[in-house]
């Protein structure tokens, strides 16, 4: 069964800042890749993809997670591939983590989708639209409030 999980970002939470959000995304990537999943992080654009990749490079060596931008890295890829609108992920990705706010036309290519509901009102509305798209595509939906790390 296809699943889509929306993580709710509370105002005043550590995840409401860019660094806190990237830190939580890294936490999720470690969690899912630790279960053997090959992940695709979908960013809005190349700049955001490079920013996320750079953030991941700055993680301490104890929590480092192998990752690469689409088109870079080893032939069979790393546990985490980072791309953006207009590029295609490798064929061997089971789970997508959506960091972009546009609707997710790629969602049917993945059995599991992770998405976020930011605290800003306009961003919440865009998340509601993505939620409807997943529901119409037959995904089993769930929402989770982010626990502070």
UniProtKB/TrEMBL annotation:
Pfam families: DNA_pol3_chi (PF04364). InterPro entries: DNA_pol3_chi (IPR007459), PolIII_chi_sf (IPR036768). GO terms for biological process: DNA replication; positive regulation of DNA-templated DNA replication initiation. This is DNA polymerase III subunit chi. GO terms for molecular function: DNA binding; DNA-directed DNA polymerase activity.
